[in-house]
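Handout, page 2. Input:
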Amino acid sequence: MQVQENTPHDPLESWLAHAGEFESAALPRADRTLPLNASHAQRGMWLAQQVADAADRSLTTSHVYRLAGPLKAEALRLALDALVERHEVLRTGFAIGGADLIQVVGEPVGADLDILDVTDPAELPLLVREFLRQPFDLGRDQLLRSRLYRVDENTHTLAVAFHHIATDGWSMGIFHEELAGLYRAASLRSGSSAPLAQAAGLRDLAVQYPDYAVWQRTLAEDGEEYGDSLDYWRTRLADAPAMIALPTDRPRSQVRSASGGRVHLEVTPEQSALTVRVAAAHGTTPFTLQFAVFQALLAAWSEQYELVTGVTTANRALPETEPLIGFLVNVLPIRTSHTPDTPFAEHLARCGTLLREAYEHGDVPFELLLEKLEIPRLPGLKPLIQVTVAAHQDSAPLSLSGLHTEYLPPERHDVHDDLTLYLGTTPQGAVVDLDYRSGLFDRETVTALAHAYVRLLDAACTGPQQPVAALIERADAGSPRPDPRQHPRP
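Output:
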């Protein structure tokens, strides 16, 4: 299953996608005679790249597609060229200008699709892996890299890599849709001089990502737009715990590794339907209910009943940003607290209130929040948030006309956080993916945590008035887990 993260899947998720709705006028184009400041998210991503381990590819998103049928390689090249021309962010480099990070938009010279003939199909996985592991130089490289592997006239593999500084989950849906339309137009083209994007029926973009970035930074500089929201977060996060002290299988290193894994579970249709009904009975949404269950489980495993967990938002409130490829995703730090004796229904209501408040103040970029609140950065530890919860659902897959297209999952799984819970839905019911940092956790531990989550979700749905501790015991959700005495907490 191919998923697109940060995509709404219930009413609260629709709000999440448009968190921090602005009432201001249309997003303006930036003055291109002046330096183009990078967005707050780009600054954070650039900094992460500077301190990342040489083998860290968690800042790169890779996608591989098997293409069966009579592929028109030249049409694919033209389609990728048109995408890079259409979206400035894909041809943007970065440089230090004074005390700030500046976007440097390159000329539309094309995507430079490499085409490699493969004589031995058994070598293909290694060739693709080596290509996707190549690092990006953010000062010089285009941020979309592509290579086509040709086994024979009807068998190809397309590998593409983006740096995360230029894309997010929402962007991949745009990439699939526009690449399909551009390929179709290029395949049918016969001597027309019209731009390929026009032939594909794509509307001109009102603004580009660099315009959004400059506008966002201007809001932060004038200090008025974010004032009330910053006050909310300053109060809400005062003296917040610096980490969730989950017991780990290995001690935390001062050098954070991106190597990780994913545990996938499917929730039965009956339990999925029960989750929807119980959420509705309590005046909330399935996402809020699932979030509350996860918070209760994290508290039980860490024996820490006050914690901060991140919730990702698509951050596409402005209509001008909806068709853009770019890194717009934001993270909201949700600080919750309860006691083992708290009735789950009370805990659920409190989580709902906190999520709504966070979405109402979700216009503040997370990196700006860290800066303004002077959150300390500790070696080997992401500041404030090490565990996140995100919604995802099936995205429209890449579909190239005349071809059978199959998405191939990555062989290696790199992660951004210690743990990330992805919540999604399929026609068969809910799905749960739990990503983990393998430098801290064994797969067996995270598998036990994922199963404990599903059991606790069922217990909470069938006994929401019971205390959280009783539900933990009933679901056997507190064990097995690493011995917290094995590796002392920081």
